[in-house]
Amino acid sequence: MKLTLRVWRQKNADAPGAMATYEVDGISKDMSFLEMLDTLNEKLIVEGDEPVAFDHDCREGICGACSLVINGDPHGPERTTTCQLHMRTFEDGDTIDIEPWRATAFPVVRDLVVDRSAFDRIIQSGGYVSAPTGSAPEAHATPVPKADADYAFEHAECIGCGACVAACPNGSAMLFTSAKINHLNVLPQGAPERESRVLDMVSTMDAEGFGGCTLTGECATACPKGIPLPSIAAMNKEWLRATRKAGSR
Question: CB–CB of 3/95 below 8 Å?
Fold first, then answer.
């Protein structure tokens, strides 16, 4: 396959950026999208140019590091992570636009790499449980109803890639934050911090500069792990509950 790539190039957050056009040839349909970018970078290095910086780690759809907007869609045209997107999705001769996440809370570090540490700070503010250290407890020591366990697992699938923020016209992090809150709040282990968790994490999310949610649904459509949109409503109920409880004290 021969492709035309229009790639966002930017030296740092303060420097102006622009799209640069590159031609790549000999691309196999069995390559992943990141392997195609590896091929581009090998070409650029041989030609004495600066390779394109992009995030990646596991390349197995687990870590969420591979954050790219491809032809206007976070992670590309398929509902998967960028590293699991294969070039068979495209046609010979295609022009592909490749950009970083676009959100105020995700400043560009270089080229296609953005700083997603705002997510880390949201987690640090409440995404934990009070549990004694030491050996693992007996698996059946704390019974969890299957419906609650399934609900927790569904939300625990969030890998923190940020596609929900990139897809949202407001740059909202509500889907990510709701997944992390609902995952813990439904379990008995998460009960001690239930109120403080939702209040602190939502407050941190707002302080980080993410936009407000207007329930357009783009976040859930772009999520590669299928976190459902009703997760946001469940978090809002938790927040109202915690706010009323805190106000009555």
Answer: yes
Query: What are the backbone dihedrals phi and psi of residue 239, each rounded to the nearest 5 degrees, phi first?
Result: -65, -45
Q: Which two tokens stand for residue 36?
A: 């195609």
Give DSSP secondary structure letters for 68-124: -EETTEET-SSSS-GGG-BGGGS-TT-EEEEE----TTS-EEETTEE--HHHHHHHH
pLDDT in tens, 205-223: 999 999 999 999 999 999 9
User: pTM of the entire structure?
Assistant: 0.93
Q: Which amino acid is at 101?
A: W
Tens digit of pLDDT for each residue in 30-89? Answer: 999 999 999 999 999 999 999 999 999 999 999 999 999 999 999 999 999 999 999 999
Q: Where are the beta strands (DSSP E) in the chain?
A: 3-9, 18-24, 69-70, 73-74, 95-99, 108-110, 113-114
Q: What does the alpha-carbon distance between residue 219 and residue 165 come to, in Å, rounded to a whole number?
A: 7
Burial-class residue 82 by CB neighbours within 10 Å (0-12, 13-18, 19+): buried
- The maximal CA–CA distance of the chain, rounded, in angstroms, is 67
The b/e string for 19-40 (b: 16+ C-beta within 10 A; e otherwise) is eeebebeebeeebbbbbbbbbb
Measured distance CA(106)–CA(162) in Å, rounded: 9
Distances (CA, A) of 148 to 110, 143, 155: 41, 10, 11
